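Q: How do we represent a protein-ligand complex in a form that can be generated token by token?
A: Start from the inputs.
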Amino acid sequence: MPTKNRASFGSRLGIIFASVGSAVGLGNIWRFPYETGQNGGGAFLLVYIICVLCFGFPLMMTEFFIGRHTRSNAVGAFRALTSKRGWRNLGYVGVLAAFLILGFYSVVSGWTLEYIWQALSGSLSGKTAEMFMADFEAFSGSIVRPILWLAIFLVITHLIIISGVRKGIEQSAKWMMPLLFLILIVLCIRSLTLPGAKEGLQFLFQPDFSKISSGVVLSALGQAFFSLSIGAACMITYSSYFTRETNIPKTALSVTLLDTMVAILAGIIIFPAVFNFGIAPTQGPNLVFVTLPNIFEQLPWGSVWAFFFFLLLALAALTSVISLHESVTAYVEEQYNLTRSRAALWVSGSVFALGIVASLSIGIWKAHTLFGLTLFDLLDYTTAKILMPLGSMLVCLFVGWLVDRKTLQDDLTNQGKIRMRLFPFFVVFLKYIAPIIIALIFLNEIGLF
Ligand code: TRP
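Then emit the structure tokens for the protein with tryptophan bound:
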């Protein structure tokens, strides 16, 4: 239900920074490079950009519409939009996805603090490649340290959340995002001046079309959703703090383009470095935590570069964790009528509990699996492959078929003030194109084809 004195963001820039903060995260700097590395480089980038523009951008506009129109948390939003049973509860899919993503995402976020610490204390220097690998596995599988970093990361998130939408989320994004861009540019320049830069750039930008397969397309679409924070209530929640004047198509486009730019810049940092030292780009999830520190250590001032890189990763992760946390907190706060700090405390506490189990599931509890997956992987799998695509598909159908066309058009165009010539096409996209394509991909991913 829309509440009377509901918070809102204070400025247009604040809106952009907060939304870009949600979108830019481990997805851009950790996941994008290793997905690109494993899926053939340039070809993957090309398919990825197509997915971002054709699916990510319109879906982001759709989530922005839902949030801004209802000015409510994700669960309340669908309740305000329809009285149809079943559809009323669609918001739960997103909030549940946000909570489950937090369970593993905040653990990985904690790892970034360990690496900042290691860079500062000098313990990254003088190691061989094998030592980096062994130390990463020993650390991520150990009991105390990852949980300690998880706790610290969650305390920081919690403090920002309880400071409120404007003073906490918006203000923190306003200084973290510029700092993030600055570090990104400095690291890019460092990487581009390495002798292997040309090969790395060729790998990233020269598409080898023979590498495009259905698997590559699926990975690219999944990566696009994840990177743009779509399908887990985040953009619905943040847009509920937009103002009536916010230009939704323009904001969605800016967020989409900035997020994609950061992913590409992260690629420009990582691939030249990888090729400079003759390392295979197909390492997978270890690329950033094992390969990169190893590379940095072979450069002059290695620990300084490593420090900045992991600071970049931590900042990016923090603004994303804040948005996931806020999606769940806004729901708990508004639907259960709690104070913000009470609600935030429940969320932080439960995420910490889930995070502990997720962290231990890749260490001492490795042997306990469900469907052959540890809890950590299970959280990743159920959110990325089931809840997010399924939720997004239902959201498209919902807005396409159940929301009155005029309401949608009025809201997206700010009562006709903004021109949107592609609106009729947008409706067709929501009604038919997006649900069918997402359904095909979904069935393919869970192996029904
Ligand atoms: N987009 C963020 C990243 O790239 C992660 C994230 C934040 C997210 N909120 C989300 C992913 C909502 C999916 C849904 O790291």
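DSSP finds 18 helices and no strands in the chain. The chain has a mean pLDDT of 93.
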